[in-house]
Amino acid sequence: MNKLNRKFTVAPMLDWTDRHCRYFHRLLTKQAVLYTEMVTVGAILHGDRDRHLRFDVAEHPVALQLGGSEPAEMAECARIAEDYGYDEVNINVGCPSERVQKGAFGACLMAEPQLIAECVAAMQAAVSIPVTVKNRIGIDEQEDYAGLRQFVSTVSEAGCQTFIVHARKAWLKGLSPKENREIPPLRYELVYQLKQEFPDLEIIINGGITTLEQCQQHLRHVDGVMVGREAYHNPWLLAQVDLVLYGTGTSFHNRKAVLAALLPYVQLQLDAGVPLNHISRHILGLFQGMPGARSWRRLISENAHKPGVGINLLRQAAEKVLDLSSGI
């Protein structure tokens, strides 16, 4: 099994981390492991497989997050993912939405560690790439560490070596997915305790992390960090990851250079029939916090959906931004 350096990872985010988003993020960081948005076993086995799974070779290392709970189906999807070239398959045991619960996957599976163990065993028997799990610290009335410990112990005995743990529990009834990302309190200490008790496992912490300084603090206790919404809304954060967390050089020193590097990809996608707004929506946060950022966002948001619009719109929008780092 190949070893991925998951010191820093970008979270799987439904409707956000599609292939265009990941290509953009990869420009900013060469080291971080990127995750797809969750794809269900049904979509892979019975849907437009290529639409859900294709990606650019530049995205490596990239992991597929899979939603499902039937071991044979999960194993078949893992085989397909490996054939597509993914570096890892991750099982979603963290999403709290009712739509996901009805599909018998997501956070509700925290109550069925043996079933997840069976999925892990079947998937690992089918592929040579790592099979990992993303889970919560608990669900509903679970308040203690015992339930989390039992889940990790059971699943790790089936061969899973990497757990990405969202440090909030999930309420399966009564809270929306958005509320489940904000209302249950963060309990980082439980994730730290997991690492102490299972030192041979790779433990990645997730939830409420917004700065690289926080990442550095967490890395004193666990093996890696996963950042979600902050990486999406303020993607320039990713441009510092390689230097600060991996000790390697950065690719870009100003944001307009990132945009210039992205434009050939955008043009390629436009030529293939992809509407501009399918790509541009992922880069609205590139100039977050800079003078003119609001004008950048507004010009793109109001025009990128129009027929025939091209990359010149992005150039025009960038002219609204005062990029002090580039001297413009």
TrEMBL record:
Class of the enzyme per the UniProt entry, highest EC level: oxidoreductase
Annotated PROSITE patterns: UPF0034
Binding site for FMN: P12, M13, L14, Q65, K134, H166, N206, G207, G208, G228, R229
InterPro entries recorded: Aldolase_TIM (IPR013785), DUS-like_FMN-bd (IPR035587), DUS_fam (IPR001269), DusA (IPR004653), tRNA_hU_synthase_CS (IPR018517)
Pfam families referenced in this protein's UniProt entry, alphabetically: Dus
Swiss-Prot/TrEMBL catalytic activity: 5,6-dihydrouridine(20) in tRNA + NADP(+) = uridine(20) in tRNA + NADPH + H(+); 5,6-dihydrouridine(20a) in tRNA + NADP(+) = uridine(20a) in tRNA + NADPH + H(+); 5,6-dihydrouridine(20a) in tRNA + NAD(+) = uridine(20a) in tRNA + NADH + H(+); 5,6-dihydrouridine(20) in tRNA + NAD(+) = uridine(20) in tRNA + NADH + H(+)
Keyword RNA-binding: yes
Cofactors that this protein relies on: FMN
Domain of life where this protein originates: Bacteria
Positions marked as site (Interacts with tRNA): N92, K178, R181, R294, R297
A molecular function (GO) term: tRNA-dihydrouridine20 synthase activity
EC number: 1.3.1.91
Catalytic residues (UniProt): C95
The DUS-like FMN-binding domain, residue ranges: 10-318
Sorted UniProt keywords: Flavoprotein, FMN, NADP, Nucleotide-binding, Oxidoreductase, RNA-binding, tRNA processing, tRNA-binding
Function, in words: Catalyzes the synthesis of 5,6-dihydrouridine (D), a modified base found in the D-loop of most tRNAs, via the reduction of the C5-C6 double bond in target uridines. Specifically modifies U20 and U20a in tRNAs.
Membership in a protein family: Belongs to the Dus family. DusA subfamily.
HAMAP family the record matches: DusA_subfam (MF_02041)
Protein name as catalogued: tRNA-dihydrouridine(20/20a) synthase
Organism: Thiothrix nivea (strain ATCC 35100 / DSM 5205 / JP2)
Gene name of the record: dusA
